[in-house]
TrEMBL record, chain A:
Pfam families: BING4CT, WD40. This is WD repeat-containing protein 46. GO terms for biological process: maturation of SSU-rRNA from tricistronic rRNA transcript (SSU-rRNA, 5.8S rRNA, LSU-rRNA). Keywords: Nucleus, Phosphoprotein, Repeat, WD repeat. It comes from Echeneis naucrates. Residues 418-496 form the BING4 C-terminal domain.
TrEMBL record, chain B:
Belongs to the UTP14 family. Residues 1-24, 379-429, 465-485, 537-573 are annotated as: Disordered. InterPro entries: SSU_processome_Utp14. This is U3 small nucleolar RNA-associated protein 14 homolog A-like. It is found in: Nucleus, Nucleolus. It comes from Echeneis naucrates (Live sharksucker). It comes from the Eukaryota. The keyword Metal-binding does not apply. GO terms for cellular component: small-subunit processome. It holds the Pfam family Utp14. The keyword Iron-sulfur does not apply. One of its GO terms (biological process) is rRNA processing. Residues 476-485 have a biased composition (Acidic residues). Residues 394-403, 537-546 have a biased composition (Basic and acidic residues).
Amino acid sequence: MASAGEANVSVSHVEKKEKKQTPARYWKEPRGEKDGNDHEEDGGKTLHQEEPRPQTTKKRKQDESPAVGKKFISGKSDPFPGQAPIPEDRVQKFKRKDKTKKHRRQHYKLKAMITCSEEVSEMAQKQAAKFDLLLPEDAGFLEGEEEEDTCLISQEDIADAVDITAGAKYFNLKLSQFGPYRLDYSRTGRHLLLGGRRGHVACVDWLSKQLMCEINVMETVNDVKWLHSEAMYAVAQKKWLYIYDSNGIELHCIRKFNDVLRMQYLPYHFLLATASAKSFLQYLDVSVGKEVAAICTKTGRLDVMCQNPHNAIIHLGHPNGTVTLWSPNQKEALVKMLCHQGAVRSVTVDKSGIYMVTSGMDKKLKVYDIRALKPLKSYFLPAGASCLSLSHRGLLSAATGDIVQVYKDVWSTAATKPYMAHRTRGAVWGLHFCPFEDVLGVGHGDGFTSMLVPGAGEPNFDGLDANPYRSAKQRQEWEVKALLEKIQPELITLDPNELGQVDRATFEQRHKDRVEALGYDPLAQKRFIPKYKKKGRSSAGSIERRKKQVAHEDQRDIIRQTVEDKVKMEKQRNEREKKKAVLNSSRAALDRFKK
Amino acid sequence: MDKVSKKSIKNCSSQTPESAELNPDEVYIDEAEVEELNAADENIICEEEDACKDERKRQRLLEAISALGGKRKRKLGERSEAAVQMSEFTVSGEGEKVNLSDLIGTIDKNAAIPAKTKKQLKTLQQSNKTVECPLSKQESERIQRDVAYQKAASEVSQWKGVIKQNQRAEQLVFPLNQEPSGPKPFERVLTSWKAQTPLEQEIFSLLSINKQPIHDPILTPTEEASLRAMSLEEAKVRHAELQKARALQSYYEAKARRERKIKSKKYHKVQNKHKRKEFLKQFDEMVKTNPAAALEELNKIELARMQERMSLKHQNSGKWAKSQVIMAKYDEGARKSMQQQLEVNKDLTQKLVTSLNNEEDSEIEEVSAEVTPAFVKDAEEGLDSSNPWMRGKLSAEPREKQTSDSVDLTAEGFGGNASEDEEDKHNVAETEEEALLREFDNRRKHRQIQEADTELILCLDDDDNEDKEKTKNAAEDLDTSDKEEELSQFTSLMQGLTDAHWDIEAEFAKTAADTSSQLEQSFIKIGTLEDRELLSQEDSAAEKVPVKPQLSTSTENPLPASPVTEKKRKRKRGIELKHVLTKETNIIHVPLAPTFRDSEDLDESLDQRQLIKEAFAGDDVVSDFLKDKRKQEDTSKPKLLDLTLPGWGEWGGTDLKPSRNKQRRFRIKAALPPPRKDQNLPSVIILEKRNSSVTLHQVNTLPFPFENHAQFESTIRCPMGRTWNTEQTVKKITKPKVVTQLGTIIEPMNRERLGKKLVSPGSQDSVKLS
């Protein structure tokens, strides 16, 4: 109807377009509108079904709502009527639930609720699919010339080929004094933390190559880890766990955490999980500084550890070839898998939480589907892999001695040779992909190497979650928000959707849990202990008598009631019988003939 | 019913209070009131006659004085004789009571009173019923309240729709009656707009002439008409009717066919006679109800009579009749048949006498010829016209849409030539139907046979199952006894072995009836081999079976995949752990060879140990894991509850054990737990313990409108936060239920809103154009 108004306006300006035939009015061809509606309906489902007609005008009216007539005043129809279609596969990507079946006999409230939730989910899905357009960046890739192995392309060649800023990301730090290095990138991918085995700890803003701090802790350093932001990091030293700030000032020395070998930080729970040489798995809540859980795994030295970013479960590798999955809520391993015939050397889990890659002493590399707990692929590496790391986009890096290999698509296709390979100057000690960058950091005996691995990093970052370009102010804002949205450690489960499920445990089961949690049975009745009385009135007999007086107090009422009922019934029956008898006994006229 | 009763109650209630109020008034009349009334009365009188003014004044004075005295006194006498001082209201109770009968007595003589009232009064006199006393105040009030409540409820219930709408609305914005923001339709904005230019006027006139919609794309009148033509329900009803009619027709056809096939002459004779009688009866009726049709019938009869008179058919002149005449002397039957024929002749030739006169007949005849439908006429024309009674039926039954049927009947009776075609048709139809029926019958039989077969099979299956169960039970018993005697690991392993056996067998019995026995055997062998290997490992370390070195396993090629082997492998996957571990591996060739050793010099000793471990990798890893798994399974198994007490019912002592019978009786087996999650995953142990930490945050009872878990879970499945949704979606999801505008007065809903609801929004905005 808005268009009608416009048509009306156009009538006054007809003179300008005299050379054309009479202007088309909306009432002349109601067909156009119908077409438009059709398109609007199936717009959500399909790609561009009709090829764009050869129209001279590509103009599209901006403010026109789809419900209103589709015709322009000029008589030309909208070449792209209705809403822009969303590709089906993209919609599918954001699917969260299946449609629930509706029955005719449902309660109207239920019906309304279901339709509402379905509507909302569909809208969310569509919107997300639409906004997916706003992720413009593509992942990079490395492509060799014909019959050229990509794994033979050297890092120098790549660095020369790419632009200067990207080329600058390939560099070596020669730190031969303080022995093999462990490393960690912050969650934004901007900061690098290096921990040399002989006590050298340094944090660097590696993009700008700015050294933030450099200290020597004068102790063996087993592992280093950034905490929630680049302001703090944890260092697992020879005996205790220490926390330093970005200026290298020691903030805490946590004596409860001793002999820590490996650490993992769970960013959404603010938990620092540590695995110690004494086979203890401990969780430290970084936001409040409290130990959440300490689990004795009873499996010996724990020097293989990783986390599942999907559900915050900790994976531990053991010398007996098993990988165990842990949550802070249970004292036993949630899952124990036998993965290798030898000891497990390294474990890593995909970002989506579907795939787990393990390497063992039997020189094998195995890929597991962690949801089904089934092996998918098995590779034999002649030298075995000591360190593993998975990038955001699923590239796997494995270190065998001083060689770092990068594999593509280890789970979908059977890889026969690496995607890339690079020889470092010492035995590899730590391996980590940089988030949101095509960079693999390698800590080795002779320092640190930053490798270029095209296609490794996720090109589109979430600015609200981990923004590599955030300012100090933004970081503060983010910190507050993240603390507010902190997930409690109780909610760590194997299936993160479990919280949304109805607890189907029986009442008995729940009661048992309650008793366990409280330490006593709240529904249990108090035992009656008779008071002690003097002058021989507390003899055994009298105590028994007194006990008897209050025995079965709860059942008495019920019993009394039933007894009363019974008596009443009996009475009624008697009366009825009596009446019957009277009726029978009254003499009928013919009774006199009876004998 | 309800309404009626309520109405009556209402009436009652409206009457009763008045009477209740009146009663006391009649009894106690206030003195003052009486005075006043008297005064008024007297005023009227004094206007008419002034003579006795003084006397009245005196009287009033006296009254006033007496009133001062304070004593109530009845001053006015009763109306018994002509007097000046007479009260109009009181009737003193003295003297004779007046009965109704006394008053009514004069009625009979009075002619002026209508008979109806007389009658009523008489009945009143006769009935000895007392008038019911009026309802008590409480009761009447209750009824009044009830009625008032109903009234109010009906009024309030008008709002139900609006309220429900508001309750169900996603969002309510107060104040409610706000103009919707946004663009308005142009008709509403430009109410005064008119077609001004000649072009516009022309267009609108054209539109109005062609009955085209002007504003919205409303339907044109023709479209509406076409929509209105026939609804779906109507069509359905129509279809059902037609179907029923067809079914009825087929029934009648079948009946007619059956009857026609009967060969008994006697039966047909009786039938014909009956029909004739029926026809006559019908004819008589028709004369009354439908004279036109009756006339037609009459005509036909007349025609038949004429033909009969012309022909010699029943005149005892045929060949047969002549022979009968000869036989008649000796044969009673022959005589009778002759007689009958003559009677038929007589019947046919007799002229029917009707009340209708002939001239009228002829007129109506023409009309009726026009009125009767064509198909009826056709049928009649094709008929042998010699049997008028059959026609009666024909004309009577077209209501039931069985013309063809009735035609058939007539044809049957006398074997008319014209109806042969139709007969053929029927035959065809009949054969078709019969074929169909036969088919159904065959199918039914077939099904019955099949059912019987399946029952047999089932029986066989049952037998099999029973056998298996028996054997299994026996095995279990064996197991338990073993356990008792010595609880060593060996036995547990044995048990595991046997269990595995049974499991495998059961599985096979369940699913693979078609697989060959050979396959089964090989399969079992594999399972047992595996276990045996374990046994040997445990029993003696010396006997350890050397595990294949890695290289050999790694070079293992996948077997050629024939369908049978594939099937086998599928089975195997659930059981063989070794297989899982030695999954075929891809060897990766790295162009660069490592020059460094992995481990550092710092933990040399550890490295040594690891090297040793590497060398003997896989020796005990698998068995350890299996043991661990078995242990887990055992702990999760429900424990046997043993309630046997030694010495009860038998001898007790140090070396005496309770008998087996007793043990069996007093051992309570707990119900089997649900199958473990890692049942089919040999290399995985999944913890079955409940995680009570999450349950604190979970919902443990289904909220109200939900009927099952799936519904509820799916409704809370979608995240709501900004982290997972776009801004628009978040805003929509977290829209507040009620929005109020600051500083505005929220007034209660008024009646206008109710009216607005009733009137559809489309009909409101109509603008006159041109």
